[in-house]
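2024-03-11 09:14:02 INFO queue: dequeued item AraC-type DNA-binding domain-containing protein, len=287
2024-03-11 09:14:02 INFO validating residues
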Amino acid sequence: MEPNFVSYKEWISENLPFALRVDCLNFHVFPHCHNYIEFNFTVKGQAKEKINGMEHTLKPGTFTLLFPHHIHEIETSPENPLLMFVGSIRIESFYDRKGDFLALTELLSKAAFDKIPYNYFNEQVTEEITNILNFMLKELSDSRLWSTLMFKSKLTELLITFDRNRSNSSFTEVNQTLCQKSGVWDIITYVSQNYYKEISLQSLSEKFHMSIPHISSSFHQLLGENFHRYLEKLRLAQACDLLLSTDSSVLDICFETGFTSYKTFSRVFSKNLKLSPTEYRKLKLNH
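2024-03-11 09:14:37 INFO prediction written
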């Protein structure tokens, strides 16, 4: 099943670059990806989560940090609902070199390419993170004087606590070199935010002043798939979302998600989902 694509516009305010809520999940969260950074922290219950096809157990103390290249789904049961904090951060707020979070750019750049994007924390760290998140939630909901600044400071504390206690051995020296020195993260971020535009390895090479072979090999090393497949995945995910959430015509959705012809869109869609776009819409809406 191809993932749906979730935009930050669905629940992050235009005025603030972040959001935080508590979810109680007793249903299947289908595969999806985001154009923002998401973190989940489980406080009660148990479920199965798949991230880019890799399955693990969500249980109290599990902290997951998700980036645009992560596709994830959660399988829960009504008998054992999952209670978790869910936070999101508009990606440009962390990767704007002039922004408030400049000092955390390196931290997130490392975490973005961890082979295992989740961590299990012990009771002491779990309690510490829970207290930070409850404080953040209160600041966000109360809208008191300096609440935004206080929220940012606690968000910084949260991510530092996460980084100090996480298992980061999977972030290899190769990934660190690619991430910090070659600017590959900037390219991946750009593609994730501009998938609907005409993007090619040639255009990326010209925009970021890197060779095509270097960009191509970096995508494969860091994401486990080539540039064209990653771009195709993002476009298909957004197309699935628009087919189910709007009344736009299939042709409009085709061009809105970056495909240059309906023939190509229909062929790629059918190849990956085993249904035409129209059949997919009818099947899902009638399910």
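2024-03-11 09:14:37 INFO annotate: The chain has twelve helices and ten strands.
2024-03-11 09:14:38 INFO item closed
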